[in-house]
Amino acid sequence: MKTRYSEIHNVYGIKVKHFEPEIQIKGYILALHGFCGDMESSVIARLAKQMTAHGFAVVAFNFPGHGSSEADEYFSVHNCRRDMIEVMRYADSCYDVSCPSAIFATSFGGYITLLNMDEIPQETAIVLRAPAVNMKRSFEKFTDDMEAYRKTGWQEMGFDRKIKVSYSFYNELDKNYILKRDLKRKMLIIHGDSDDIVLPEDMQLFCSNNPKAELNIIIGADHRFKGNGHLRQVIDMAEEYILEVCL
């Protein structure tokens, strides 16, 4: 496997990372990170190591203000949705294909994928790891004081890399509610029964409204799947599903 970086230039730059196989490329998998994550995530790297062995490139990118992105002030649901589609079209042209072979998305990235489902071709396999099907409630768990957040109009969030998140972002989550929508799309959802960010009851409700979704539960896994062997199970499930759909 080899890696390279590129950047899409628009109003702001979108940082893109390409993981590519040494053999001929069959297609690519678009990978989306979670809230306050980035394209350098360990799960994306592990997915890439496994899928490049099958001839698939993996393309990841940073949402505004995440990782190496310097576009903090542009972080919004609207811009994240637009960036996903823009990177997808860019990768289509890079690899001379009409669509991604698959999309693998985590948490907030899964939420953006679900919002963009009408823009994703039917032949693209969808794998979502703990998608934030009730993103408003999940986001509230990151917020120390909702009243102070409302009054100041922003809050600094994140781990090693901090980002100022405006209150308008929270309002967007209210307007982009997907928990009870039937997206009429086949997809694999991987979730942990000990997830305290994307609650199991929200996931069950979403899947009951989306009968085409296949839900795989990993017993004992939390939101980050950091327990012994949990990430390995995620990647193995994703690999099996993608290969079944694409090959």
Summarize the structure in words:
The protein is of the alpha/beta class. It has a single domain, classed as Alpha/Beta hydrolase fold, catalytic domain (Rossmann fold, 3-Layer(aba) Sandwich). 35% of the residues lie in helices and 24% in strands. It is built from eight helices and ten strands. The strands form two sheets. The chain has an eight-stranded mixed beta sheet, sandwiched between helices. Strands 7-8 form a two-stranded antiparallel ribbon. Strand 1 and strand 2 (13-20) form a beta hairpin. 40% of the residues are buried.
Question: How are the elements arranged and paired?
Answer:
Elements: E1 2-9, E2 13-20, E3 27-32, H1 42-52, E4 56-61, H2 77-94, E5 102-106, H3 108-115, E6 125-129, H4 135-140, H5 146-152, E7 154-158, E8 162-166, H6 167-175, E9 187-192, H7 200-209, E10 213-218, H8 230-246
Sheet with most strands: 8 strands, mixed
Number of strands: 10
Task: Supply the number of helical segments.
Answer: 8
Q: Rg from C-alpha positions?
A: 17 Å
> From the helix content, strand content and strand pairing, which structural class follows?
alpha/beta
CATH fold field value: Rossmann fold
Q: Could you name the ranges where pLDDT drops below 50 across 5 or more consecutive residues?
A: none
Output the helix-strand order. Answer: EEEHEHEHEHHEEHEHEH
At CATH level 2, the architecture is 3-Layer(aba) Sandwich
Global geometry: globular
Main CATH class: Alpha Beta
CATH superfamily, please? Alpha/Beta hydrolase fold, catalytic domain
Alpha-carbon distance between the two ends:
20 Å
| Overall mean confidence score, pLDDT | 96
**Helix percentage:** 25-40%
